[in-house]
Design a protein that fits this description.
The structure holds two protein chains of two kinds.
Chain A (H helix, E strand, L loop, with lengths): L3 E4 L2 E14 L36 E2 H13 L7 E2 L2 E4 L9 E4 L9 E6 L5 E13 L3 E3 L6 E5 L6 E7 L6 H18 L11 E10 L9 E6 L2 H20 L8 E5 L4 E4 L12 E2 L6 E2 L2 H9 L5 H12 L3 H8 L2 H11 L4 H19 L10 H12 L5 H14 L3 H7 L8 H14 L1 H8 L5 H12 L6 H12 L1
Parallel strand pairs in A: 13-14
Antiparallel strand pairs in A: 1-2, 2-11, 2-12, 4-17, 5-6, 5-16, 7-8, 8-11, 9-10, 12-13, 14-15
Helix pairs in contact in A: 2-3, 5-6, 7-8, 7-9, 9-10, 12-14, 12-15, 14-15
Chain B lengths: L4 H10 L9 H16 L22 E2 L9 H4 L6 E2 L2 E5 L4
Antiparallel strand pairs in B: 2-3
Classes of the chains: A alpha+beta, B alpha+beta.
Chain lengths: 483, 95
């Protein structure tokens, strides 16, 4: 089913492409030895190269190149063994050189692909056009003074990967799935932390609309959207605006726009009218970047297992449904945790507890899985206590909550609180007899055909046994007594 | 192709250089002179010749990923037209 927005003249399709700027994880900047860490005092992580002092020459950071290659390999993309750097010229106070060193005609990475999963579980392949390396700009602070702008160049020169998708996305949901998937891949690879709040991943969104079967119409670019949710909202807002323009007999003109989350609209960025006149030319300070194929292969050999491969393996090795596997591999830490619990145990059983009880507890306590109050070994031990019949599933929930609260191992909690499952039929017989005697009226109703009361009797017996009865035995004994 | 006066104005604007209308004919003449000089290269037949990116056939040298610079805000800000603390200060440019 194609996603459409209903206009006055009928349904409209959306065509969306994303340009994602991902800050490269490295110690030093792309062309200088200044540090990249976040939050330093202003202009303390700036070299003469970053501040564009006359005569300073850029020297490229090998690790930034390696990170771009790793990302390309992770996106199943062509790695270009020869690439070049160009100057992208524009005038802005936080760009001291008056140009950004970027890659225009010869990027380091070419065509690749990202597979996204849609809400109905189907898989769509989204084309990657290219990935190139470029410098980030400095930061402008507009809120420090009524008529002045303050400039901090700490971020100037930090390496960015610009990852450009084909116009293959067809709905806000697909765009959201693409961004989340890209972020997951970057985090697995360790090439970008994917933190949109701190601006280490930002998206420019290209949107156009069309009637079914038409070629592409004019697109607009919505700049610098900084969360998955805002990207989805911006697409919808921009598509609705364009539909209104077309339906009123107007023409959408290609332009750069800004999304205003508070008002849920996009507006024109007039100052960017000349923005596309970048007058690119090859940077005369930088020779072509030539990669040794053996080095690229060594980087490939060092890649971690990526989310798609891990998901397939979880399904095959642990017998998980696609949904469970997808949830578990979304974050590397969750996948590691799960495997530590599942190894040597029932995979689906382990998945239910990790996705259900553990994730709920982490949510409730606001903890990340890396600092989970319940270790994988402790959760595994709890599953073992259920599997070997020491405790039943209902008691296990209580033990788990106690583990979250106290951090104690499950065996200790069971012993301390005397929660062992009662499998002694004598004790069960006694509890059943007591419950039936106290509820003679309900026993009569049951025998007259009110089958549903069976559940009531099970509940009463369990209550009488403080929840510790073996459920199967309780059922058996009850059935025998009520026959 | 000679530059029109409008193109001269646009180039100046992109470079944020203010020029008076009186200066345009003179700049137009100078720019066209430079372009015409460079244009002579178009007469060369470069069919099948690989683009030359430098005088030596060398590849880019790479540096190690180590922090070796920074921590010199006084030097970085030495030529700032105006500063506040360790920030550069410029006229407000806001979208």
């Amino acid at each position: 089913m194609t996603y459409t927005i209903e206009g006055k003249t009928g349904p409209w399709e959306l065509v969306i492409g994303l340009e994602v700027h991902a800050q490269v994880i490295s110690e030093a900047k792309l062309f200088s030895g200044a540090a990249t860490s976040f939050g330093a005092a202003p202009n303390h992580q700036v070299s003469f190269v970053d501040a564009a002092f006359p005569g300073m020459l850029p020297v490229i950071n090998r690790e930034c190149v390696a990170q771009a290659v790793r990302t390309g390999l992770g996106l199943d993309a062509e790695i270009h063994l020869e690439s070049r750097f160009d100057r992208k010229n524009y005038f802005y106070a936080d760009l001291p050189a008056g140009y950004q060193i970027s890659q225009y005609q010869h990027p380091i990475v070419g065509r690749g692909v990202i597979e996204i999963e849609r809400a109905d579980g189907s898989i769509r392949a989204i084309g990657i056009t290219r990935l190139h390396l470029e410098q980030d700009a400095g930061k402008s602070l507009h809120d420090q003074h009524p008529s002045k702008t303050y400039i901090d160049l700490n971020r100037a020169g930090v390496a960015l990967m610009e990852i450009v998708s084909e116009p293959d996305l067809r709905s806000p949901e697909e765009a959201g799935a693409y961004l989340r998937k890209l972020r997951t891949i970057l985090r697995y690879l360790g090439t970008c932390d994917g933190n949109m709040d701190e601006g280490s991943m930002r998206a420019d969104v290209n949107v156009s609309v069309r009637k079914a079967g038409e070629p592409f119409r004019t697109r607009c670019e919505v700049k610098n959207v900084n969360s998955v949710r805002f990207v989805m909202q911006a697409i919808e807002a921009e598509a609705r605006r364009q539909i209104a323009v077309w339906e009123e007999g107007g023409v959408v003109s290609q332009e750069t726009r800004l999304f205003e989350p508070a008002r849920g609209i996009t507006r024109s960025m007039r100052s960017k009218e000349d923005a596309h006149d970048y007058r690119y030319f090859p940077d005369p300070d930088l020779l072509p970047l030539i990669l040794d194929p053996a080095w690229v292969e060594a980087l490939r050999a060092g890649l971690p297992e990526l989310p798609d491969a891990k998901k397939r393996r979880f399904m095959a090795e642990y017998g998980l449904p696609a949904y469970d596997a997808g949830v578990l591999v979304a974050e590397q830490a969750s996948a590691e945790y799960y495997e530590a619990v599942a190894r040597g145990r029932d995979g689906k059983f382990a998945a239910n507890w990790v996705i259900g009880d553990l994730f709920a507890a982490l949510n409730r306590t606001g903890r990340a899985i890396e600092t989970s109050p319940v270790s994988p070994a402790a959760l595994g031990a709890l599953l073992d206590l259920m599997t070997d019949g020491t405790i039943n599933g209902r008691i296990a929930k209580d033990v788990f909550e106690e583990m979250v609260a106290s951090g104690d191992p499950p065996g200790e909690i069971v012993a301390r609180k005397n929660l062992r499952q009662v499998t002694d039929t004598g004790a069960i017989e006694q509890a059943v007899a007591g419950v039936l005697a106290a509820n003679a009226d309900k026993v009569a109703d049951y025998k007259a055909g009110k089958d549903k009361l069976f559940g009531f009797f099970v509940g009463q017996v369990m209550k009488a046994m403080a929840g510790k009865g073996n459920p199967a035995l309780v059922n058996d004994v009850l059935r025998r007594h009520l026959a | 192709m000679p530059l029109a006066p409008a193109t001269v104005r646009r180039i100046a604007h992109l470079a944020r250089i203010h020029i008076a209308d009186d200066d345009i004919p003179r700049l137009q003449g100078e720019l066209n002179g430079i372009l015409g000089w460079v244009e002579q290269l178009a007469a060369l037949d470069v069919e099948g010749v690989q683009p030359l990116t430098g005088a030596a056939r060398m590849a880019l040298r790479l540096r190690d990923d180590a922090v070796t610079e920074g921590g010199i805000p006084e030097k970085i800000l030495a030529n700032a037209p105006e500063r506040a603390g360790d920030y550069f200060v410029v006229p407000k440019v806001v979208e």
